[in-house]
Amino acid sequence: MSLFISMPGRFRIKPAMFQKGRIPLLLLTVVLLACLPSKAEGQCKSFARHLCRPVLENFRHDGNYHAAVLEQGEEAELYKTFFAGQTYRIAVCGTEDLPDIEFSILDNQRNELYNNRTNDYSNTWDFRMEASQQLMVRIKVPPDPPGNKSAAGCVAILFGISGR
After folding, report:
1. Residues 134, 108: contact at Cβ < 8 Å?
2. Do residues 24 and 64 share a domain?
3. Does 44 share its domain with 83?
4. What tens digit of pLDDT does each residue of 21-72 get?
5. Under 8 Å CB-to-CB from 84, ≥6 apart: which residues?
């Protein structure tokens, strides 16, 4: 039995395409391509690893690289659990083409615990937890002034734990 489907003006499916091994290979290729991170995401992770991680200094990195491409005027939120008795450093870095990045730390009732705007847009904050809890880190890239071209760039958030 031969399988040959012809659809005028569209495409042809020939029996050779259904030979053993070809469809699984094609399916595997499609799945792998869909799962690969985008080039921008990969570049952001590289930025976080090479340029932002040193900002943690003597704090031990938690091993996670949180990074994304943001445009001026955009916000992002990240939730993280912090444990009692630990001293942490949060480091927020952005590429040079972005303005100063604002970050704030909020508790689960959305009470603001810290905002770097009141600390000259510092890119780090060190703190000690009295009780374990989940906090929200909110990142804001300030909007561009009217008439200017909006910039986009990588923003990374890294967490470190004091070894002391």
Report:
1. yes
2. no
3. yes
4. 555 544 444 444 444 444 445 678 888 888 889 999 999 999 999 999 999 9
5. 129, 130, 131, 132
Residues 44 and 117 in one domain: yes
pTM > 0.90: no
b/e map of 124-153 (b: 16 or more CB within 10 Å)?
bbeeeeeeeeebbbbbbbeeeeeeeeebeb
In 41-101, DSSP assigns E strands to 60-61, 66-71, 75-82, 87-94
69 C-beta neighbours (distance < 10 Å), count? 16
Q: What is the model's pLDDT at position 20? A: 57
Q: Using alpha carbons only, give the angle 63, 69, 75 rounded to the nearest 5 degrees.
A: 95
Going by C-alpha positions, the residue among 91, 95, 93, 72 that lies closest to residue 80 is: 91
Q: How far apart are CA 56 and CA 119, in angstroms?
A: 18
